Amino acid sequence: MDQKRRNFLQGSLLASGAVLAGAVEAAPEPPKPPKEPKPPKDPKGPKPPKAETYDVVVVGAGFAGMCAALEAAEQGAKTVLLEKMGRPDGTTVYSSGWIAAVGSRFQKNHPEDSKEAFFQDMMKLSGYRSDPELVRVYADEAGDGIDWLADHGTPFFLWENLPAPELSRCVISPGEGITGGSKLLRCLMAALEKAGVPIVYNTKAVHLLKSPNWDVEGVHCLTPEGPKDYRARGGVILTTGGFGANEAMVGQYIGPWAAKLIVRGSPWITGENILMAQEVQARLVNMDQFYAGPITPTGHANPSPLMHAGYGIQVGTNGKRFVPETWLQVPKAKAIAQRTPDNRSFMLIGEDANANDNILSATIERFARLGYHVFKGETIEEVAKAAGVPADALVETVRVFNEAVKAGKAKELDPPYEYETPHALETGPYYMIPAAGGMASTMGGPKINKFAQVENFERRPIPGLYAAGAAAGGLWYQDDIGGNQLGGGMVFGRVAARHAARRAKAEAARRPPEPPKPPKPPKEPKEPNGPKHGA
Ligand SMILES: Cc1cc2nc3c(=O)[nH]c(=O)nc-3n(C[C@H](O)[C@H](O)[C@H](O)COP(=O)(O)OP(=O)(O)OC[C@H]3O[C@@H](n4cnc5c(N)ncnc54)[C@H](O)[C@@H]3O)c2cc1C
């Protein structure tokens, strides 16, 4: 309790005691008036936080943030990029670096594709729930974005003729020992340095600065040197990534089952975009949508290729099948979290799987390089014991499976086994590869319009607030063309930057011209260069 309040309470207790006492005794001396509070030592009060002013303030140094910052600088805006960690450390670092595009210079040999076909495919994959206006901007701008990155020194190659809907739409920057996503960031960091854009690390944006009518005017940050305001004349662009590593938000927006998912990307992607955008009543959309994939429970290895090799079965820790093995990686990863009590399963596979391009040995070798060892046994009992799964239950599952395969009735199993040419599990040694459901990235967030401005509940843009990449909502729903997420960051990061830079210019034009500076007094004439005294 503060001193003033304590004095007041003590004073009133004394006073009421005096009244009671006065009924039987002589009137006491009137209580002394409370002492004047001492004036604070610093009459100006606590110092305001340090502040710097820019045209465009970008929050979050992932792929979207770097694209936004570079574009803003190229539009002539004084730009700063803020990053809460000591280095770029978002989900981009973990990503393969595929970017989906149409019409880039790398796709010249594919006139069969078009912006319209790309738009239609993206809408279809989203179940027609993505905002068509945003998808149209994506289809129109992604090709130009790839050329722009290439002009800034990002090497790309095109992965051609993939199965639909990827087709010849995946442009990749080869990682060469690092992830493709890290490669993209390194190229952008070099370009930002050249353009003179500072990346300020260990600077975490915690809330928005706003005018009395709620225009966004900057961000308040925590830095190792204390609090600091970054003011923005044109706008603040939120590129803080999604909220997949914020267990409470995942539970709240997606469901408690999803909070069991293992984070496949960065552990620092914790939804500050949501917390800040809500300060100005931004409309959040598609918050229950996310991209999933399987992952080993420890070691961050991806067992997906083996899970789709056309061999083996997937079982829970109880030794029973629970999901059709043919399901693609996203629904399968979700099913592991939804249908098993502990988000744990195993792929049981025999040595004969190597008939498919040595996929088994290649996976085991890849896992060993990552320090991750799979369970092995000469028989089903042995491998079950090694993995800690009840041996009798697994033996029974395999017996039923083998019988169905041999009788040509695998599709009638529950759940159905839908490969056209199923293989009975009869060739040891057998392997059990742990697979859990993993959270790759969330798709929902503050709804943006075609200029990447964040909208409020009335669908009006909130002046000065933009979002891009996984920090923005409206572009994705349900599924996407592989490479759509990085692509979304690139496209809308640049769109936001252009709009915010224009806004900064308009703001500068409105400002009254600064009074001319008084002329500097003439400098003292320098001593002419000559031999030094005493030389
Ligand atoms: C294993 C894996 C592979 C993937 N592969 C692909 C792929 O090939 N193609 C594709 O399109 N997508 C892929 N994705 C998805 C894609 O990686 C993400 O959607 C994308 O990287 C998000 O980029 P971003 O710039 O929006 O955010 P991030 O890359 O997550 O960057 C956000 C940055 O903001 C910082 N930050 C957060 N909060 C604050 C704050 N308050 N103040 C300051 N800074 C803050 C973070 O530290 C981080 O550096 C993959 C995902 C995973 C997990």
Automatic annotation (TrEMBL):
Its cofactor is FAD. GO terms for biological process: steroid metabolic process. It comes from Sutterella megalosphaeroides. PROSITE patterns: TAT (PS51318). This is Flavocytochrome c. Gene3D superfamilies: FAD/NAD(P)-binding domain (3.50.50.60), Succinate dehydrogenase/fumarate reductase flavoprotein, catalytic domain (3.90.700.10). It holds the Pfam family FAD_binding_2. GO terms for molecular function: oxidoreductase activity. Residues 1-26 form the signal peptide. Residues 55-485 form the FAD-dependent oxidoreductase 2 FAD-binding domain. Residues 20-51, 497-535 are annotated as: Disordered. InterPro entries: FAD-dep_OxRdtase_2_FAD-bd, FAD-oxidoreductase_2, FAD/NAD-bd_sf, Succ_DH/fumarate_Rdtase_cat_sf, TAT_signal. Residues 32-51, 504-514, 521-535 have a biased composition (Basic and acidic residues). Keywords: FAD, Flavoprotein, Oxidoreductase, Signal. PANTHER family: 3-OXOSTEROID 1-DEHYDROGENASE (PTHR43400:SF10), FUMARATE REDUCTASE (PTHR43400).
